Amino acid sequence: MMTNIGNRVTQGQFSFLPDLTDAQITAQIKYALKNNWAIGIEYTDDAHPRNTYWEMFGNPMFDLKDPAGILMEINNCRKTFPNHYIRVTAFNSTRGVESPAMSYIVNRPKVEPGFGLVRQEAEGRSIRYTVHSYATDKPEGERYGK
Amino acid sequence: MTEPAAEQDPKPDVNALHNVPDATPVDLEAAFRDSNVQEVLDKLDRELIGLKPVKTRIREIAALLLVDRLRKSMGLTSGAPSLHMCFTGNPGTGKTTVALRMAEILHRLGYIRRAEVVSVTRDDLVGQYIGHTAPKTKEVLKKAMGGVLFIDEAYYLYKPENERDYGAESIEILLQVMENNRDDLVVILAGYKDRMDKFFQSNPGMSSRIAHHIDFPDYSAGELLSIAKLMLEGQQYRFSPEAEQAFADYIVKRMKMPHFANARSARNALDRARLRQANRLFAKPGAKLTKKDLVTIEPEDILASRVFSEGVPDTEEKV
Hints:
The complex is a heterodimer. Chain A is of the alpha+beta class. Chain A has helices at about 20-35, 65-80; strands at about 40-45, 55, 85-90, 100-105, 115-120, 125-135.
């Protein structure tokens, strides 16, 4: 984690860049809509790299054709979960593909304590390593403050 | 995280008013030509008979949007004008038709992003139990974003006799979005004049947020005849000269009767005339029919109406 100053979670697209502005998010949504991908909003307060299943905020928006409506929903989610990670995914429903085509974080907690390296003594003298999110020491909902 | 809204224009250059010389030429005609608005306006003139005040207002709106765009190119401020509208008028005066057309015009002028109309009524906006209305209304609003939201019979949204009616909640959300997302959404309300007036009286906030109140006048008998002919043309029928005269008489008589619904009554009358025409063709077996028989409405198809024989509208006329 030495290279990641500020312990910012880096997952999905654009995560090494500064936070996207609403105008930039709108542009990304436009791109997804142009490709006929359905946009979904997901949130979590456990952004462990192996936690791929975040909670969905409402249904995927298969029926929306304009970025303004989706941005409205994103802002709605930010208002509901100001201190959670929120990501926007674009789902490609083409038969045979059926998988997310885009995913980027649009909201993150004010303070991100980051991850620590955990060493586990195993058989013999071998050591197992894993990452552990400091935030998850607290129960769900209280991890990044109210 | 919460940056200013995406669509916000860059800060207008305060000095533009003074820095750009007053004599800078402006090519209004080129802008007009480029936008292809004339094409839409011509189509409007061709396909919509009468409706003078409506067409005038549409022309004005088109002019305003074009001038605004030119101002922007000069660096002058051009605050997005509020384009929410209210169409009032008697049944069958073309409110819905014009709303559909409006989306196309606004799209050509670059005011909305999609030439699409989401048409809803009370049922689509108002829920059935507590907490049901807000998500329902928001769902519709999200779907309409970037285009036109057309609310038919809008006065049903507010039911003064029931103070716990959820319509008020829906109106509140609508107002909020109409104010905050002016660049993203154009809302058009439609309804009968007297009821809409009452609706606005009890919702002054709604009235003040709607910039354009357009009243649709009733059609004259002559206009209704032209409309009927246009409709027939669309269905590939035509009047024989005597039938045209008969239909003109029919309209004059029908206009004086109750439940007269302007163009809608004319359309219903034509539908019945087509029924009778088909029946008449069937009634003479063995007769040599030509294509002319198939496309021509004869006077007897119209004169058989109860409007002539009994002086009452035909029964299926429901409003």
